[in-house]
Amino acid sequence: MRSIQPIQYPPNVTIAVPGSKSFTNRALLVAALANGNSTLTGALFSDDTHYMCNALRQLGIQISENSEQSTFNVIGHGGNIPVHGAKLYVGNSGTTTRSLISFVSLGHGEFVLDGDEPMRRSRPMSDLLDALTQLGVSARSQYKNGHLPIIVEASGLKGGKTSLDASKSSQFLTSLLLIAPYADMGMGIEVIGDLKTPYIDITMAVMEAFGVKVSHKDYRYFHIAGGQQYQPRAYYIEPDASSASYFFAAAALTGGCVNVQHISTDSAQGDVQFVHVLEQMGCQISVSDAGITVHGPHRLKGIDVDMKDISDTALTLAAIAPFADSKVSIRNIEHTRWQETDRIHAMVTELRKLGVDVVEHQDGLEISPSSITPASIDTYSDHRVAMAFSLIGLKVPGIRIKDPDCVSKTFPDYFEVLQELYA
Question: What are 11-34's pLDDT values in tens digits?
Answer without folding.
Answer: 999 999 999 999 999 999 999 999
